[in-house]
């Protein structure tokens, strides 16, 4: 009898234990990681407090959604042999939910985490980000492109996050196709031909008509949302919904683009969009500097094939910002890392390696006349990009901006497709905003 | 020793793992959601108690009512053809002298193995306005001259979402029906045959009545599953004017896109009540027939 009792007990305990094994293991790992960073913490602090010239040591954990951060970590480690940087990558849009959950629970939290332009506004005023201004961060961004540094500031003007790049956009085109339809592949001449939306509509209507509707000048009337997104007033002013009157002009332009068959109606980053970029069925694709990976460059076959011209107004898309977790025990070491990526050495390396445009005006200027890349052949794309990002207005990110923009995209996008009046679009848009953000005053 | 039944407590140890698991991963989140639904919480600041404000907002939320309506439409559009198709195929594949019936049973079941997200992506690519294969096919066949903007039409969006779900689950329901058919004793059929019943009479008066318990099972699971439609429709988008947004999609967008966790929690309880309501109706309707 005794043995049977014992067996019963043992079996049920094992069953229960195996059930809990999943979370149990996790917990153990967490505490182990915590211990490791704690024990390294002391040495990290010494390194930094001695002026930062001494050898740094310690361990940093970075969370990101972007795989090029690994190169960043490798470069930093190569420079500081005593430091280990662990990069945890969570691709896809689940990253922000995962990050927020970790920050809320305060367990297994990274020292540094990445924030994308799309949602930095929600995090920037939160208690999770260290005030970098207090650590001397303002000095790191004093030569920065105005819009890039401003996006890393919270509403009280304190610096909370820093990006290592800017993300200017332009019209990318295949030189062969441009010669065929525009008569030239010279970036300056093309920029001149498309420096206003009216010119684009006229030119695009002609191309569509001449090619029997097979060729389009631009990808999508919706691209204007990206181009105008940060060339317009913020969506919320003093707690009230604010629709910049410029959006009406933009909407009317978009309708004309659609009616003139100027656009191929392909949404940004969709499969068809990527095909059109590669097969040339669209002459001009407006996209940011970082989107070059969408071009099929197997065996370098696309080298020298593409050029970049200016859009009627300068624009940027996206951007990755990096902040330090406020309760991190490695703040000083983390700051050294931020300092490194904000510096010219890394940004120069990154520009040469990936073609990502720098965030620092200094790096732009030192490359202004000399920059070339094998991909773009003899065209210096850095110069036009610099001219356009310099002029981008410096606007802070707020927690509503991106979400409300996406609601506008939806409402106005419906309006373009279904030929609605501007009043109807505004009506639908206001209804959506009111529903999602009841705290915003809507007329 | 009044009773011979062994009433020792060891049995509880054996069932404990499930209940511990349920308490941790099921009950705790359910209760936490209830707690959140009375708060105001965006995930960044500490929750603030707001009473029933979220529920008041939910009661006046026309977008939520729209999602209930959308879900019901998609549910009817996907389940009606699905059940008819599953039953017909089950009846056919249950015939003794059908060639390759095992092959077809397997083939019809295949869509069920694919994850709904994949199916959603496949369908959204197929029905893409500009580059979709369906439009290319229709244009090459000369059926339409201009590409059809499927996802710009409320009804097409819903029909496509329904088609995905129908295509995914008819095979599963077919297998359930076949299992039900095979549990009907052959004596009943033999007796019918002796009495000279035709095939049609056998099907209507023997097979269908005896399949009733299986019908109930399929129906109730499809009510609960159908009202929780999420992954495939999510991949197909909201549709024009949110006409193909389902209840759970709305919950997801509220909580995890807008970070309005507290209102999301209230929406979750709203969905719970709607699902309870329809499940109760189904259960009641099935009991009435007894």
TrEMBL record, chain A:
Q: Which Pfam families does the record associate with it?
A: SBP_bac_1 (PF01547)
Alphabetized InterPro entries for the sequence: Bact_solute-bd_prot1, SBP
Q: Which PANTHER family match?
A: ARABINOSE-BINDING PROTEIN-RELATED, POLYGALACTURONAN_RHAMNOGALACTURONAN-BINDING PROTEIN YTCQ
Q: What keywords does the record list, in alphabetical order? A: Cell membrane, Lipoprotein, Membrane, Palmitate, Signal, Sugar transport, Transport
Lineage from the top down?
Bacteria, Bacillati, Bacillota, Bacilli, Bacillales
- Report the PROSITE patterns cross-referenced here: PROKAR_LIPOPROTEIN (PS51257)
Q: What is this protein called?
A: Multiple sugar transport system substrate-binding protein
**Signal peptide positions (record):** 1-21
The protein's superkingdom reads Bacteria
Automatic annotation (TrEMBL), chain B:
Q: Which Pfam families match?
A: BPD_transp_1
List, alphabetically, the SUPFAM superfamilies matched.
MetI-like (SSF161098)
Where this protein primarily resides, as one coarse class? membrane
Query: Where is this gene product found?
Result: Cell membrane
Residue limits of the ABC transmembrane type-1 domain? 68-282
What biological-process terms (Gene Ontology) are attached? Answer: transmembrane transport
Q: Which GO terms describe its cellular component?
A: plasma membrane
InterPro entries this protein is in?
ABC_transporter_permease (IPR051393), MetI-like (IPR000515), MetI-like_sf (IPR035906)
The UniProt keywords, alphabetically, are: Cell membrane, Membrane, Sugar transport, Transmembrane, Transmembrane helix, Transport
Which stretches are transmembrane? 12-35, 72-94, 106-127, 155-179, 210-230, 261-283
Membrane topology category: Multi-pass membrane protein
CDD domains in the record: TM_PBP2
Matching Gene3D superfamilies, A to Z?
A: MetI-like (1.10.3720.10)
Q: Does the keyword Cell membrane apply?
A: yes
Entry similarity comment: Belongs to the binding-protein-dependent transport system permease family.
- What is the recorded name of this protein? Multiple sugar transport system permease protein/cellobiose transport system permease protein
Cite the source lineage. Bacteria, Bacillati, Bacillota, Bacilli, Bacillales
């Amino acid at each position: 009898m005794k043995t049977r009792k014992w067996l019963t007990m043992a079996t049920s305990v094992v069953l229960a234990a195996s059930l809990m094994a999943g979370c149990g293991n996790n917990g153990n790992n967490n505490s182990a990681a915590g211990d490791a960073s704690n024990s390294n913490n002391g040495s990290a602090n010494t390194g930094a407090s001695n002026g930062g010239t001494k050898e740094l040591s310690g361990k940093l954990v970075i969370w990101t959604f972007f795989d090029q951060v690994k190169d960043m970590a490798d470069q930093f480690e190569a420079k500081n042999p005593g430091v280990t940087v662990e990069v945890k990558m969570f691709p896809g849009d689940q990253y922000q939910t995962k990050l927020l959950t970790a920050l809320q629970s305060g367990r297994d939290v990274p020292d540094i985490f990445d924030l994308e332009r799309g949602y930095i506004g929600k995090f920037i005023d939160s208690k999770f980000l260290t005030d970098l201004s207090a650590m001397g961060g303002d000095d790191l961004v004093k030569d920065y492109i105005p819009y890039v540094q401003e996006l890393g500031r919270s509403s009280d003007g304190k610096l909370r996050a820093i990006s290592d790049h800017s993300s200017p956009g332009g019209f990318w085109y295949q030189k062969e196709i441009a010669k065929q339809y525009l008569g030239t592949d010279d970036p300056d001449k093309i920029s001149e031909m498309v420096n206003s939306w009216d010119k684009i509509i006229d030119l695009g209507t002609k191309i569509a008509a001449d090619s029997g509707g097979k060729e389009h000048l631009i990808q999508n009337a919706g691209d204007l949302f990206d181009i105008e997104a940060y060339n317009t007033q913020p969506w919320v002013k003093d707690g009230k919904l604010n629709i910049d009157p410029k959006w009406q002009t933009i909407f009317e332009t978009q309708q004309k683009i659609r009616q003139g068959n100027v656009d191929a109606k392909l949404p940004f980053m969709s499969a068809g969009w990527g095909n059109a970029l590669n097969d040339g069925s669209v002459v001009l694709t407006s996209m940011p500097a970082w989107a070059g990976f969408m071009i099929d460059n197997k065996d370098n076959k696309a080298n020298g094939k593409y050029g970049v011209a200016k859009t009627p107004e300068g624009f940027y898309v996206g951007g990755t910002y990096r902040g330090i977790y406020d309760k991190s025990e490695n703040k000083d070491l983390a700051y050294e890392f931020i300092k490194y990526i904000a510096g010219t050495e890394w940004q120069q390396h990154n520009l040469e390696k990936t073609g990502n445009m720098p965030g620092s005006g200094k790096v732009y200027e030192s490359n202004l006349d000399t920059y070339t890349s094998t991909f773009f052949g003899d065209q210096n794309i850095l110069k036009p990009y610099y001219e356009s990002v310099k002029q981008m207005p410096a606007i802070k990110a707020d927690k509503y901006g991106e979400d409300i923009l996406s609601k506008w995209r939806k409402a106005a996008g419906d309006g373009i497709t279904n030929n609605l009046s501007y009043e109807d679009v505004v009506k639908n848009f206001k209804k959506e905003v009111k529903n999602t953000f009841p705290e915003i005053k809507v007329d | 020793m009044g009773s011979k039944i062994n009433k020792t407590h060891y049995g509880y140890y054996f069932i404990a793992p499930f209940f511990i698991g349920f308490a941790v991963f099921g009950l705790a989140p359910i209760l936490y959601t209830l707690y959140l639904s009375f708060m105001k919480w965006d995930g960044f600041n500490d929750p603030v108690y707001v009473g029933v404000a979220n529920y008041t907002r939910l009661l006046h939320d026309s977008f939520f009512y729209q999602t209930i309506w959308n879900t019901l439409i998609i549910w009817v559009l996907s389940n009606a053809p699905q059940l008819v198709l599953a039953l017909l195929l089950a009846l056919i594949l249950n015939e003794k002298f059908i060639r390759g019936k095992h092959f077809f049973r397997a083939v019809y079941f295949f869509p069920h193995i694919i994850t709904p997200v994949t199916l959603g992506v496949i369908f959204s690519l197929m029905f893409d306005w500009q580059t979709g294969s369906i439009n290319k096919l229709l244009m090459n066949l000369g059926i339409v001259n201009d590409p059809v903007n499927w996802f710009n039409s409320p009804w097409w969006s819903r029909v496509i979402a329904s088609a995905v779900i129908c295509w995914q689950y008819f095979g599963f329901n077919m297998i359930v029906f076949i299992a039900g058919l095979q549990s009907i004793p052959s004596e009943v059929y033999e007796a019918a045959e002796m009495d000279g019943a035709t095939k049609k009479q056998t099907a209507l008066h023997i097979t269908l009545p005896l399949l009733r318990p299986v019908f109930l099972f399929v129906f109730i699971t499809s009510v609960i599953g159908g009202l929780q439609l999420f992954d495939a429709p999510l991949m197909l988008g909201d549709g024009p004017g949110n006409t193909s947004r389902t209840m759970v999609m709305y919950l997801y967008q509220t909580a995890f896109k807008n970070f309005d966790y507290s209102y999301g929690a209230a929406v979750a309880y709203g969905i719970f009540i709607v699902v309870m309501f329809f499940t109760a109706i189904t259960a009641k309707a099935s009991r009435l027939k007894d």
